[in-house]
Amino acid sequence: MSKAIGMIEFKTTATGVTAADAMVKTSDVEIVEAQTVCPGKYIAIITGDLSAVKAAVDTAVTTYEDKCIDSFVLGNPHESLFPAIYGTTQVEEISALGILETYDAASIIEAADQAAKTAIVDLIELRIAKGMCGKSYMMITGEVSAVSASIDRAKELVAAKGMYLDSSVIAHPDRRMIDSLL
């Protein structure tokens, strides 16, 4: 059995908390993060074996479908995902900087996982709907061509769900800009 990550995003806190409780009662999963995010939405991120995560997410989405904004299950998430979520990534050098912004919380994690698996890039940060009126963004670094390829692939994934907002790639950002980000 492989490790997996799953997430639910709900319109209300009451339904989100109830759905998160149903997830942990359904399967042997661990809550990584569960909280209210802007603008009053609720997210819950879980981890565990792929089958357990899938069962837990399916239960929450099916039971509370009318209040569910989005959800996902990722098998074998990229190892840089969690440090980026928690803002603990240690970046020594930024050759190019890629930024992708979404309208929701769930799709940014899927986009970041896809970006990290597309080319040799480092995830710097994932901002998941906190202080952003429900929008989210990711920042990645690496060589210009790798960052461009990763952002393009992540953009395709997010656009297919209708959640793409904006993106850019900055080749060799100024040191003053880098210092303001890190």
UniProtKB/TrEMBL annotation:
UniProt domain BMC: residue ranges: 4-86, 96-182
Entry's Gene Ontology cellular component terms: bacterial microcompartment
UniProt subcellular location: Bacterial microcompartment
Keyword field: Bacterial microcompartment
InterPro entries membership: BMC_dom, BMC_shell, CcmK-like_sf, CcmK/CsoS1_BMC, Micro_shell_prot_PduT
Gene3D superfamilies cross-referenced by the UniProt entry: 3.30.70.1710
Pfam family, one: BMC
Family membership noted in the UniProt record: Belongs to the bacterial microcompartments protein family.
Protein name: BMC domain-containing protein
Organism field: Blautia segnis
